[in-house]
Amino acid sequence: PTGCSRRSLASNPGVPQKDLGRSVLDMSTYTLGEIATRLGGEIVGDPRKVVGRVGTLDGAGPDDISFLMQSRFLPALRATRAGAVIVPTAHRDATELPRIVCPNPHAYFARVCALLHPLPPDPTGVHSAAMVDAGAHLGRNVSVGPFAVVGAGAVLGDDVVIGPQVCIGAGVTI
């Protein structure tokens, strides 16, 4: 699934995410009820409908979830083989399929994509191509990516992830 980013969408601190008692990385399928519990939205239809992948209206199958963004795609919604869809409030009753109704289906779909297709966790440690000043302090489970620079006196707290080619200046605390 292209265009999905676990970090920018599913782990957005502004998005309410309730603990379902299991790790996102341990799951490959979710019910619509579980998705709505994590991401919000109104379920219309069976909340027990299980989905495991995302897809376009034209390409989705019975185990996939898709989305309707604009009215011009209503014919594709009527013809879709998707098992569930995400629809805007204005099109709440445009289909009989199980669905999640929300204000912005495109953004919601991206968050579902990140939920169903998470990236693997970042490796812990300092990449061999990173440069970390000897005076920097690194907490537990820190990940510093290739070509990243951590300056003198910088403090990286526990579980901090510094991506590739990121520069953390001297004295910065994260």
Give keywords.
5-stranded mixed beta sheet; alpha/beta; elongated; 3-stranded parallel beta sheet
Q: How would you characterize the overall build of this protein?
A:
The protein has 174 residues and is an alpha/beta fold. 18% of the residues lie in helices and 22% in strands. The chain is built from four helices and 15 strands. The strands form five sheets. Strands 2-7-6-5-4 form a five-stranded mixed sheet, covered by helices on one side. It has a three-stranded parallel sheet with strand order 8-11-14, with no helix packed on it. A three-stranded parallel sheet has the order 9-12-15, with no helix packed on it. The radius of gyration is 20 Å and the shape is elongated. The two termini are 31 Å apart.
